[in-house]
Amino acid sequence: MRMDTRWPPHFYLIAGCPQAKRNDASLQDMGAKAFNLREMANLGLPVPPALVIGTAYTASPESCLPLLAAHGMPALEAAAGAIFGDERQPLLVSVRSGAPVSMPGMLETLLNVGLCDKTVSGLLRQTGNPRMVWDAYRRLVATFGSVVAGIPAQHFERLTEEVAQGRDERQLDFSEHRSLVRSYLDFFLSSTGQDFPQDPQVQLHQSVLAVFRSWHQAKAQAYRKMHGLGEEMGTAVMIQRMVFGNAGLRSGAGVGFTRNPVTGAPGLWFDYLRNAQGEDVVGGRRRAPGQEAGMPAECLAQLEAAARLLERHFQDMQDLEFTVEEGCLYLLQTRAGKRSGIAAARIALDLQEEGVIDRALALSRTRELTAGELSHTRLAVKDASGLQVLARATPASAGVVSAEVVLDADTARRRAASGAMVVLVRTDAETDDIEGLQVAVGLLTSRGARTSHAAVVARQLGKVCLVGCESMQVDLSLRVLRFGDQVVAEGACLTLDAEGGQVIAGAAEWVEEPDLPLLSRLQGLRHGVEEDGAGCARVAGLAG
């Protein structure tokens, strides 16, 4: 593809070939997600083609739309080998955010954009998979309704629950998904007074504008304030060819890390859902059973090889998002993974020993760590038989904490302002609760995966986090939690044990133990010598 002098400024094409590079791409303008995606494509990794609209358009997103229609989408269509909005061979796309700095779950994403009544038949002919097609259409109407039209997502969930009758959504057949699409479309009309847009170009343009607008929403502003990030950087928008993790049992979606973000242990650490799309994992409303969930062996081997390559290329542990479509692996994102203090130390030390980074870089990554951050918190008793264990849950971080139960972010802020230590308890692990999570010492959810965006943020903030506590019901009308026959009222004390994956009634005693071997290794790094066991006695200088 030859350089086109008409190619618009701040637009970039990622298509896995040198000819696809457009303009002088900077991380600040492309955003970190697209910048790293381009790196993966240049490394020869399987990346679906994508079009990037730069951060420069955040202040006036409408100005990008004529350029998108005239130049951007034709280039993406050529790279993807399909036509957006075509009735016979339609191109479907995701529309994703991508700020220069990672902001997990704070901005919006839409999937399956381009599906409508006229393109459904073409996708059916292309795939021969009616269940996947109607499931994708259902998801689009719900997400578009929520993100673009402002319809609360729980209204679509209620319609689904009425059909599913307790079944997992993935167990619904194509006729049930098709019926739900019609119910969703009717509800969209009754809620907004307008039909769901059947013109794919209208869907695309409104989706792009909605993702740009999400830069200004409350949770994104709160996250930037919390981390000292500037408002002026803006977000890029990435339009990428869809790959379908909901295409059957040899398909799925996954999110994970090239090393354990809690302990720093080497080896892939990820969640994978068969027959699902990415938002099922990161959105916080679904429990993912972990990496033993039926990922095709050949895709797992490819993922492991990609993880090794990416760690060496970026010189750090990576946070990956990926999709498997009918046995083919596609990488959708890589970024430096959020991690605990203990993980930060071990990963830096291990990468140095493996020759991936040098001593100076390992020192810079561990210089600010204190002895407190390099300690393990555990229950004071080895045997929990004397404690009232209410439920089991999936640990998404480390540590133990006892605190007062609160059931929403506003209550968390109010109680924390009065000096109380609080645990935020929610049904879903969602980033909308960011301001409550900031002041809480722990997070407990009945749904969600350990790699959901909310769990990632909780780990980054050093909070004790348990997700997927399926036996717990949150009753907001009565302001209580139900664990079978046990009822815990808001304001009561709970203990979250992320070491053992336990929810315990009342306040349990816990102890903090320094990780002496890790401290000794750090001592050796900082002094440039190998430490033996005696060096553990000289770690006081690490405390701060």
From TrEMBL:
Cited SUPFAM superfamilies: Glutathione synthetase ATP-binding domain-like, Phosphohistidine domain
PANTHER family membership: PHOSPHOENOLPYRUVATE DIKINASE-RELATED, PYRUVATE, PHOSPHATE DIKINASE 1, CHLOROPLASTIC
Residues in Pyruvate phosphate dikinase AMP/ATP-binding domain copies: 85-286, 297-348
Record InterPro entries: ATP_grasp_subdomain_1, PEP-util_enz_mobile_dom, PEP_util_AS, Phosphohistidine_dom_sf, PPDK_AMP/ATP-bd, Pyruvate_phosphate_dikinase
PROSITE patterns hit by this protein: PEP_ENZYMES_PHOS_SITE, PROKAR_LIPOPROTEIN
Protein's UniProt name: Pyruvate, phosphate dikinase
The entry's keywords: Kinase, Pyruvate, Transferase
Domain PEP-utilising enzyme mobile: 422-499
One of the record's GO molecular function terms: ATP binding
Natural source organism: Crenobacter intestini
